[in-house]
């Protein structure tokens, strides 16, 4: 059933009654939860992926995205009910589907230079099965203007934009909370090529999202929303880092000051820390920087510089802490806790641990690493030796906020280590408790605390 020309209420009715088919391209951490949620609300859903193993698993009713709570059951239930199936054949899927959602990786290097290969590949496949009245939606995060750059590829179908609809509806979520976020943590942002497409796409997302939809005046504006969310986070984390380093100079505890300041409703000081990693926040500012022709996004650039300098600052804190206990860094045994870029997720893009390990080794330290989500091989790839205990350790440097690190038994730890030094790059431990157990405890924004 084609949706262009229907009111949002008619689309919702058709959705619940399974009267149209949605193909979701990319069955990864974002695509599979979305496909399963679509199916759970009644649509016929075809998941498309180039990875045969992923396709086979889904068709057996199995979920491969283990970080996502609730997804096992959602996939099983909807495959069993016949509402969700998967294929590697993207052209076939496009022929069956009335709505095609693109949620494949938009790969970038650390400076936001895009490799849009997977997106263009999917657009080619869709053009092989595109029909009059179909709607193509991009959900993957893209530099403003990217969705519309797909039009010439889609028009290889012989149809002109207007005969099919195009929209952008950015994925506003992250690994581990996708189902919660897709179904109603935040409103969905939608921009479309024309009013009728917009109306139909609003109907689609209002069906699955309790918080509703914010319609935008253009596709490009919808793309900018998601990119700006990332820039906002990056700039504000940089501000927190800058003020935290100022607090270090002035013998203040930055978090104490931030928490008090944030009780005023216009102040939202973020968390300082060991650096900003992942595929999103440190990358999206580069979309803005790279696309600026007349404007000079100085603040955005400076924020990137500050956040990229934080791993080096954590090394400086480690050197300072070891000096305080009279141990030279050269020859010290340092244990880095956390190889992933953040807690609970096995992703390594711009993880702070990597430059920290490298620099500590340049100082001549023996660097060890542990991460509950990682392996010995991961540690070796980062240049550190895997270590699962604290014996003979002179300094612990925390670089990811895994639950296991928040729950560290400091009493036990204080007896196992050789030297009691903790540099907490993720603010996961209670400073008072660490100091009570005899540790020299430093974190970004808290050194020489309380000393004149
Ligand atoms: N992971 C996040 O936290 C997050 C958050 C917000 C937005 N996003 C956006 O979602 C997009 C997808 O991210 P993800 O985390 O799901 O990625 P992912 O790596 O977990 O999954 C991507 C899937 O796409 C498949 N794929 C690659 N090329 C393909 C092709 N040509 N045709 C069909 N399938 C193909 C891969 O085999 C893989 O299964 C990203 O580009 C990003 O813009 C991700």
Automatic annotation (TrEMBL):
Sorted UniProt keywords: NAD, Oxidoreductase
EC number: 1.1.1.336
Catalytic activity, as annotated: UDP-N-acetyl-alpha-D-mannosamine + 2 NAD(+) + H2O = UDP-N-acetyl-alpha-D-mannosaminouronate + 2 NADH + 3 H(+)
Keyword field contains NAD: yes
GO terms assigned for molecular function: NAD binding; oxidoreductase activity, acting on the CH-CH group of donors, NAD or NADP as acceptor; UDP-N-acetyl-D-mannosamine dehydrogenase activity
InterPro entries found in the cross-reference section: 6-PGluconate_DH-like_C_sf, NAD(P)-bd_dom_sf, UDP-Glc/GDP-Man, UDP-Glc/GDP-Man_DH_C, UDP-Glc/GDP-Man_DH_C_sf, UDP-Glc/GDP-Man_DH_dimer, UDP-Glc/GDP-Man_DH_N, UDP_ManNAc/GlcNAc_DH
Pfam families: UDPG_MGDP_dh (PF00984), UDPG_MGDP_dh_C (PF03720), UDPG_MGDP_dh_N (PF03721)
Coiled coil, from the record: none
Gene3D superfamilies xrefs: NAD(P)-binding Rossmann-like Domain
Top-level EC class: oxidoreductase
UDP-glucose/GDP-mannose dehydrogenase C-terminal domain residues: 335-431
Biological processes annotated in GO: polysaccharide biosynthetic process
UniProt KW NAD keyword: yes
Similarity comment text for this entry: Belongs to the UDP-glucose/GDP-mannose dehydrogenase family.
Protein name stated in the entry: UDP-N-acetyl-D-mannosamine dehydrogenase
Organism: Thermococcus guaymasensis DSM 11113
Organism phylogeny: Archaea, Methanobacteriati, Methanobacteriota, Thermococci, Thermococcales
């Amino acid at each position: 059933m084609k949706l262009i020309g229907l009111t949002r209420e008619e689309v919702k009715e058709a959705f619940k009654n399974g009267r149209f088919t949605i193909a979701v391209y990319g069955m990864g951490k974002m695509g599979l939860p979305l496909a399963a949620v679509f199916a759970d609300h009644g649509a016929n859903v075809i998941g498309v992926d180039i990875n045969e193993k992923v396709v086979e698993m889904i068709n057996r009713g199995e979920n491969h995205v283990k970080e996502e709570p609730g997804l096992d059951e959602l996939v099983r239930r909807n495959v069993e009910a016949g509402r969700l199936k998967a294929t590697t054949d993207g052209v076939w899927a496009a022929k069956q589907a009335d709505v095609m959602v693109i949620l494949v990786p938009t790969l970038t290097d650390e400076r936001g230079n895009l490799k849009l290969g997977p997106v263009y590949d999917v657009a080619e496949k869709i053009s092989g099965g595109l029909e009059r009245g179909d709607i193509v939606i991009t959900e993957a995060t893209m530099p403003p203007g990217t969705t519309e750059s797909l039009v010439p590829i889609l028009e290889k179908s012989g149809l002109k934009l207007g005969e099919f609809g195009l929209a952008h509806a950015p994925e506003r979520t992250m690994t581990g909370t996708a189902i919660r976020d897709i179904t109603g943590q935040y409103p969905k942002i939608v921009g479309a090529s024309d009013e009728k497409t917009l109306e139909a796409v609003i109907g689609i997302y209002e069906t699955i999202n309790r918080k509703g939809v914010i319609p935008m005046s253009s596709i490009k504006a919808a793309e900018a929303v998601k990119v700006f969310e990332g820039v906002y986070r990056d700039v504000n984390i940089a501000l927190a880092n800058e003020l935290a380093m100022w607090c270090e100079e002035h013998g203040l505890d930055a978090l104490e000051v931030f928490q008090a300041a944030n009780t005023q409703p216009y102040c939202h000081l973020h968390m300082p820390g060991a650096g900003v990693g992942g595929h999103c926040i440190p990358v999206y500012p580069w979309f803005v920087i790279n696309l600026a022709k007349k404007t000079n996004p100085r603040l955005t650039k400076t924020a990137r510089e500050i956040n990229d300098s934080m791993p080096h600052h954590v090394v400086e804190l480690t050197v300072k802490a070891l000096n305080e206990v009279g141990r030279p860094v050269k020859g010290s045994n340092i244990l880095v806790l956390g190889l992933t870029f953040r807690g609970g997720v096995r992703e390594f893009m711009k993880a702070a641990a990597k430059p920290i390990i490298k620099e500590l080794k340049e100082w001549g330290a023996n660097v060890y690493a542990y991460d509950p989500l990682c392996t010995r091989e991961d540690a070796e790839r980062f240049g550190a030796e895997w270590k699962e205990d604290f014996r003979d350790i002179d300094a612990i440097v925390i670089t990811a906020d895994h639950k296991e690190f928040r729950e560290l038994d400091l009493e036990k730890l204080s007896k196992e280590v050789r030297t009691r030094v903790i540099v907490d790059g993720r603010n996961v431990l209670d400073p008072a408790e660490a100091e009570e157990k005899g540790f020299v405890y430093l974190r970004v924004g808290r050194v020489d605390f309380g000393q004149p």
